[in-house]
Amino acid sequence: MIHANFYDELVIIGFPYDQGARNHKLRQGAFLGPDSFRRFLSYTNFGVLKNVALGVDIEKGLPKISDYGNI
Known about the structure:
Layout: E1 2-3, E2 10-14, H1 19-23, H2 33-42, E3 50-51, E4 56-57, E5 65-70
Parallel strand pairs: 1-5, 2-5
Antiparallel strand pairs: 3-4
C-alpha cells in the first residue's frame, strides 16, 4: 500500500520531535511516533481492504501513498 515514489497523491513525512514536552516537563516519547506509525502500517493484517462477499474493495478508492521518511 505504501511505496517509495516522489509524485503520489498522499505523502507521509515524519517529524520525530518532543523538545516541547521536555521543556514543559511533560511525558516524553512523541519522537517515537513516526517510526511507530510506519511499523503499524507494515502489518498486513491491520484491517480488511477487500470484502469478497459484498464485492467491496476499499483499496481501489485509496490514493497512492508515498513515505518520505523523517525530517
